[in-house]
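Blinded run. Sample ID left blank on purpose so nobody reads anything into the name before looking at the predicted structure. Input follows.
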Amino acid sequence: MDSGITKNVTFSRALLVIIFLIASLTSGLMFFGASPHIPILATTAFAALVAIKSGYSWHEVEKGILETISMGMQSILILMIIGCIIGVWILAGIVPAMIYYGLKIISPSIFLLATCVICAIVSLATGSSWTTAATVGIALLGVGSGLGIPANMVAGAIISGAYFGDKMSPLSDTTNLAPAMAGANLFDHIRHMVWTTGPSMLIACLLYAILGISYADKTLDAAAINTILGTLTTNFDINLWLIIPPLLVIGMVVYRVPALPGLFSGILFGAIFAAIFQNAGMTEIIKAAHSGFVSQTGIATIDSLLSRGGLESMMGTISLILIALSLGGVMESSGMLNAIAMKILTYARSTGSTVLATFFTCIFCNLATGDQYLSIVIPGRIYKDIYRDKGLQPKNLSRCLEDFGTITSPLVPWNTCGAFMATALGIHPFAYLPYAFLNLINPLVSIIYGYTGFTMEELPHEDARD
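Blinded prediction complete.
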């Protein structure tokens, strides 16, 4: 019911909320060592006050929050299932097997290429770029050092491979969040990303192969790799049969099985393989699904890599998503996002310029908010209707959110991703940035597609808005 109060959220008021967000995140992350949760929650409260000051009732604001959260519930449910999958797949030896066979392909002449491919395999298997870089990535840095390959070059290959999996794996939180924000289907989103991420990865691999030619005469010190391989075979029954569950999940992506039942079947496959190949009992399987797998090999690198997963491991990510969605709900229901979108629309008239505007918005969010999730949530809410108004399918937007938001986050030193990678690898983001080929090429490919119209699929005529 109309209360009779004029509702007017101007661009300046919307911008005030963005400034508050930047200030709270900057102070929280840089000076108080806080996680993004509380600064974003404080911004949500501030945005609600601005909305109420602009004539909106608390009921309208709260309704906007709940409606936006409901749109992300499938993503949250998927993340819960993913946590269970990771724990069970490690217990079953599936993740160890993928790491084992990935490491086996290393040779001096293709070390950089192999590094990128190995990290891509591990990241695809786990859905986590952070875990990949902090474990296998560290081991590969040590091998590269023994070969005399510059650490920043190796780190760039690690980042490229890790973020290929972070974008393309149905187990990744960002891969689930982007289609949720754009209103797209998860598996449609993944298939659509192949058009931009696939060529970008091929170009990156070619560049790593070319760089690696100068190191072809180096002697590979395989001690670190042999330690990992030996530890894996000692603690797990490693065999090629264990590659079947990941292949089945990939097959479900191809054949468009709905995400929730498709991924849940991954838990069942993992449980069966854990019982058959690792002699795991039901108690162990349930514990791995709920609390994650705990590795006790005595080798720190292996234990750090394999001690992860479980439903509980996703709670921190889920809480951050819920808070970010709450902020998006306040800003959308009060018209703040629309005010920003209208300002952007004065510059984004064609499909190409809209894609370019999406790029700058995602970059701005990564630079200003310091959080990868907000580089997906905020542009996703801003551009959702803009893409539809231009007759573009939602999966075009979800692809752009990952091509521009997810992929550039580790290149920003003060972003949570950039800060983590710098700490884990001991290499400053600006040092590995020139060699993170996938992360540099992927946005350019996506922008080119926007201007040429290649793979920019349109809505059916009856669904497009005038």
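Unblinding after everyone has recorded impressions. The chain is about 75% helix and 0% strand.
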